[in-house]
Write a structure and sequence with these properties.
Blueprint lengths: L1 E3 H11 L4 E4 L6 H10 L3 E4 L3 H15 L3 E5 L3 H5 L1 H9 L4 E7 L18 H4 L6 E4 L6 H13 L6 E6 H5 L1 E3 L15 H13 L3 E5 L1 H5 L3 H11 L3 E3 L14 E3 L5 H8 L3 E5 L18 E6 L13 E4 L2 H11 L10 H19 L1 H13 L5 E4 L3 H9 L8 E2 L10 H11 L5 E6 H6 L4 H6 L5 E6 L7 H8 L12 H8 L2 E4 L3 H14 L3 E6 L19
Helix pairs in contact: 1-2, 1-7, 3-5, 3-17, 9-13, 11-13, 12-14, 14-15, 15-16, 15-22
Length: 546
């Protein structure tokens, strides 16, 4: 079939089941946009900044488990996606960036073409799993297929494809290859057998579930194994929701609390599923794990990187847990007092937080009471989100969206737009600080354009409030962290969204509930400063340098 390069891109996307893309047209990528117009079947969401477009694609991917796609033009537009792609890379989120390039004959010559960037493809290297250029129309389908194959197999991280603008406009005879498909990486049977035997012999096991368990869709298998072994389940930030937090075995995202560490010290084995043992999750790797560690992860590079494993199961988390469950079919431990112990632990943590910072605990209680069970909570980087990432109950996978590894300001609002596009039937609420909100507040225009009801909470302390207390404790004074903000209610009105300012956490709950009920985009501002959740390793940021 004869088609342009732009058509080859769009038909390749459609062949892989893509129904939504996010982006901004530019002089060099107009052939793609003409193909989107003529072909139909793929919805395009017009962002106001390429960083926003890539964050939207990331939010879409995290909410669905499908691949998010952003489209950008050459040079500055392509570079604008890098922080977003780095966020997706760090958190193992599959995002495809399709970027145009200058004419093929000029690449690498530094002649001064419009939008020319020295080694544009190389700029994607730190933030993508795989990247390639399609230099001919005929090469586009196979290059696109490989980009999808890379994301669908192994650790799901971003990929990038760049295509010269003249190639996009040219025509060629195209035969679309079969779409890439997910091939779940099967673990080695010997590794599964060793893990099963260790679990069979353990007396007090504990499970720590990370984003890999969510990403592989392993919730049912994880629950089955936890109930079979009567093992408490802790989660990482990215693992929240893999087990409903009101399940008797759900211990929450709590391992950094002293009470939880005392609980962990009594366990003789940990099964860690889909977690990398990162700095923030392990208190700079000071967290003491049981001597016997079974580590399940799809990436062999993560095995023994930070903690030595007794048994290493390299493979897809869902496949691994299915096989472990199959080998433990005869194990049926009876419930004992463990559920009471877990409930007591969670209450101890709440009481400890309440005694230190009652306003933070009140915030979490207030938000949880206001949010329907099926709501999706999206976070930017702000103290309010720090409280919620540890304490707020989450009931389903992919309903707590957080830029954890890269910790990128400006993620919240555009990611929430991607989530709402993906899950229109669910309330979507985003937590922002005033500083982070201003990074990408322009994307409110996209929410209005596509009639996307969001609830945007802006916690306004007129500062980069995460940094001010660090400076004061470590250096004795704050410097260059106070900001002058616009009138957020006037800003909401200018964008055509509802605005609501509340004066207390007590007023926040009804405001959130009313905004969800109104089914319109609403910006809710809460002025003031929230207390820092003082648990390790966050507390270390407030320690003076020795």
């Amino acid at each position: 079939m004869r088609m342009t390069g732009g058509e080859a891109v769009v038909r390749s996307l459609a062949a892989h089941g893509v129904d939504t893309v996010f982006g901004i047209p530019g002089t060099h990528n107009l052939a793609i946009y003409d193909a989107l117009r003529q072909t139909g079947g793929i919805r395009h969401i017009l962002a106001r900044h390429e960083q926003g477009a890539a964050f939207m694609a990331d939010g879409y991917a995290r909410a669905t488990g499908k691949i998010g796609v952003c489209i950008c033009t050459t040079g500055p537009a392509a570079l604008n996606t890098l922080a977003s792609l780095g966020t997706a890379y760090s958190d193992s989120s599959p995002v495809l960036c399709v970027a145009s390039q200058i004419p093929a004959a000029g690449i690498g010559l530094d002649k001064g073409y419009l939008h020319e960037c020295h080694d544009q493809l190389g700029s994607f290297a730190p933030v993508t799993k795989w990247r390639a250029r399609a230099d001919t129309v005929e090469a586009i389908p196979e290059t696109m297929r490989e980009a999808f194959a890379q994301m669908l197999n192994g650790r799901p991280q971003p990929t990038a494809v760049e295509i010269p603008c003249d190639t996009l406009d040219e025509s060629g005879e195209i035969s679309l290859p079969a779409a890439a498909t997910l091939q779940r990486l099967a673990p080695d049977p010997g590794q599964i057998e060793l893990a099963a035997e260790l679990l069979r012999d353990t007396q007090r096991p504990v499970i720590w579930a990370g984003g890999g368990a969510v990403g592989s869709g392993a919730s049912a298998e994880l629950l089955q194994l936890a109930e079979r072994l009567q093992a408490p389940v802790f989660t990482t930030v990215l693992g929240k929701g893999v087990l409903p937090d009101d399940h008797p075995l759900a211990a929450g995202n709590a391992l950094l609390y002293p009470d939880a560490q005392a609980f962990l010290a009594e366990c003789d084995l940990m099964l860690a599923v889909g977690t990398r043992f990162t700095e923030e999750e392990t208190d700079r790797w000071a967290l003491q794990l049981p001597d016997c560690l079974i580590h399940v992860d799809i990436d062999p590079e993560e095995i023994d990187r930070n903690y030595p494993s007794t048994a290493a199961v390299v493979g897809d988390a869902r496949a691994a847990l299915q096989q472990i469950n199959a080998r433990l079919q005869d194990v049926r431990r009876q419930p004992s007092g463990l559920a009471t112990d877990i409930a007591d632990l969670r209450q101890q943590i709440w009481r400890s937080c309440q005694s230190r910072a009652p306003e933070g605990v009140e915030l979490v209680h207030t938000l949880r009471a206001a949010l329907p069970r099926e709501a999706v909570l999206v976070s930017d980087l702000t103290v309010a989100a720090y409280w919620c990432r540890r304490l707020i109950d989450t009931y389903e996978p992919r309903s707590f969206i957080y830029p954890w590894g890269f910790c990128t300001l400006g993620f919240g609002l555009p990611a929430a737009i991607g989530v709402k596009i993906a899950r229109p039937e669910r309330p979507v609420v985003v937590l922002c600080g005033d500083g982070g909100f201003m990074f990408n507040c322009q994307e409110l225009a996209a929410a209005v354009q596509y009639n996307l009801p969001l609830v945007v909470l802006v916690f306004n302390d007129s500062a980069y409030g995460v940094l001010r207390p660090q400076q004061e404790v470590r250096y004795g004074a704050a410097h260059e962290v106070d900001v002058v903000n616009p009138d957020f209610m006037a800003l909401a009105s200018a964008f055509g969204v509802d605005g609501c300012r509340v004066d207390s956490i007590e007023q926040l709950g009804p405001a959130v509930a009313n905004a969800i009920e109104a089914d319109r985009t609403t910006l809710i501002e809460l002025p003031g400063t929230l207390p820092w959740p003082m648990i390790d390793p966050s507390a270390r940021m407030f320690e003076a340098e020795q």
